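Here's a chain:
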Amino acid sequence: MEGEAQSDGDQLTISLIYRDLKVEFSGGPGTVLQSINSFIAKQIPEISLARKLALNFSAKDLVDKFQNFVKITPEGARVWSGERKFSDKELVALQLVAQRIASETLDASSGNPHLSSMTLSELQETTSLNPKSLSSRLSELAKLGLVQRDNSEEGTTFRITTQGIDWLVNTLSRKQQQVK
């Protein structure tokens, strides 16, 4: 698919070529975007099918889902438990989610992809878990694919995976339903 865009003030014109089909959309940016999405959904059904299977959490999704559990403070991203009790696994996963939210919202301009990761010592400091317990929980989470362990010259860091975020959303949702 080829595309070409021109902007005339607030007017946007986009030409799309897909196989033998050529279409042009003109109007405001929002209208053109809706037209393009509609065209793609109708003309390329595979994309619609793929969207049903795709899972990706944007910064907005993360904030919406975890705003009651994590906060970004001057001291850094933190789990905000209040009266809630979390298992060690949930606490570690929440801390890694908080770190990812902080990296995607506050530190996006720095361009450093490692900001969403944390070292073992950073996790120990922020969660206050016993180092042996923390190491065991991280190993369990990594084996399940919920946390990714990254080894580099700077050392080992950990970050939450998309599967880990999904697991945490479901786990916290079940816990909230049990309380009601």
